[in-house]
């Protein structure tokens, strides 16, 4: 009986030692994982499959995209990019192709517009939900939407106003191009 208990203790010690060695020798990075996406390259590739002019904003290097893809929501195809801003906040961009107000409402989590605002010659509908306590809005704390041709352009996220203005300004040429298509 004594040998069985001793063998059990030795086995447990050996197992703990083996786990400790594995923890020590497995390399781990101290740097955060960079999940940046080259949204410009993705836009160029996606453009081949659609007739509309996909927006491809030129932004400072401090802006990073963590996703860029074509999506389908509520029978509307959309071109979407997720940006991490210089203030480490989020702004999502979506261009709904042949979209409608229902699609905009879906993207804005059914929040109500509060005003309109002109940025670089484009009139945007503003959705300011920063004071909302509703968990259903997700990260649509603030949003902008506008229509050009058959496309709707939507911005939403948690970033401060000036970063929304930066992105809206970067999109103004693409919006004008789509309006004149």
From TrEMBL:
<feature type="transmembrane region" description="Helical">
    <location>
        <begin position="7"/>
        <end position="26"/>
    </location>
</feature>
<keyword id="KW-1133">Transmembrane helix</keyword>
<dbReference type="InterPro" id="IPR025339">
    <property type="entry name" value="DUF4245"/>
</dbReference>
<keyword id="KW-0472">Membrane</keyword>
<keyword id="KW-0812">Transmembrane</keyword>
<protein>
    <submittedName>
        <fullName>DUF4245 domain-containing protein</fullName>
    </submittedName>
</protein>
<dbReference type="Pfam" id="PF14030">
    <property type="entry name" value="DUF4245"/>
</dbReference>
């Amino acid at each position: 009986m004594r040998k069985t208990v001793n063998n059990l203790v030795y086995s447990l010690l050996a197992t703990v030692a083996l786990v400790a060695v594995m923890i020590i020798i497995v390399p781990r990075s101290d740097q955060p994982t960079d999940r940046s996406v080259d949204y410009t390259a993705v836009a160029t590739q996606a453009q081949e499959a659609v007739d509309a002019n996909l927006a491809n904003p030129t932004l400072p290097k401090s802006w990073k995209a963590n996703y860029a893809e074509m999506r389908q929501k509520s029978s509307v195809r959309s071109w979407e990019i997720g940006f991490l801003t210089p203030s480490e906040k989020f702004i999502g961009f979506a261009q709904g192709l042949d979209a409608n107000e229902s699609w905009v409402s879906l993207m804005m989590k059914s929040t109500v517009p509060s005003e309109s605002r002109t940025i670089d010659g484009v009139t945007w509908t503003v959705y300011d939900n920063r004071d909302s306590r509703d968990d259903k809005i997700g990260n649509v704390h603030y949003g902008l939407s506008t229509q050009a041709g058959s496309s709707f352009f939507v911005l939403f996220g948690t970033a401060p106003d000036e970063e929304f203005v930066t992105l809206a300004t970067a999109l103004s040429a693409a919006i004008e191009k789509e309006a004149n298509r």
